[in-house]
Amino acid sequence: MQVETIGDVLDWTRAVHGNLADCMAHCSKGADQERVRMLLDYLAEHERELSRVLELTKQDASPSALHTWCYEYFERYPVKPHEQCNEDFRNMDTRDIMSAVLALHEKVTDLYRYLHSRAEVNSTRELLANLIELEEHEAMRMARDAGRMEDL
């Protein structure tokens, strides 16, 4: 996937979350531990919902923000939507799974922060600030809920 505009970034991010959801759902079926299956099922559903929210965000975003160019980031830091799916989540423990998922969310948040720091148009800065907030909030929510599962 070639990423050149903020709209492409949203498509890429949606693909990352969707692919991660598919990977976790697949790994959940083969996991031996019940806690791992429960966590993977929860995270897969959460990632699917996040992908849906990103689609709605794109539909509501200003066309000028979506058409803002941002290709220089991806020339320096190539990204692959499927990189997280190479993990074998079914053989990890719950802490390792959460570390991998939170690392992916941090990578996306860092991308948004970089693009926000370079944005010159208010609509683009506003969109990216909202995306940063969304990713941070969802990562905190997943970590909190995963912690609650550990307490069970």
Q: Please summarize the sheet with the most strands.
A: none
* Alpha-beta content class: mainly alpha
Write the CATH architecture name: Up-down Bundle
pLDDT < 50 stretches = none
Please write the string of helix (H) and strand (E) elements: HHHHHH
Shape: elongated
Total discrete domains: 1
Number of DSSP-assigned strands: 0
Average pLDDT across residues? 89
**CATH secondary-structure class:** Mainly Alpha
Our count of helices gives 6
Q: What is the fold-level CATH name, i.e. the topology? A: Ferritin
Q: What Rg, in angstroms, do the CA atoms define?
A: 16 Å
Q: Portion of residues in helices?
A: over 70%
Organism: Modicisalibacter ilicicola DSM 19980
Protein name: ATPase
Explain what the structure shows.
The chain has 152 residues and is mostly helical. It has a single domain (6-151), classed as Ferritin (Up-down Bundle), CATH 1.20.1260.10. It is built from six helices and no strands. Helix 1 (6-30) runs antiparallel to helix 2 (34-60), helix 2 runs antiparallel to helix 6 and helix 5 (94-118) packs antiparallel against helix 6 (122-151). The model has no long low-confidence stretch (mean pLDDT 89). This is ATPase.
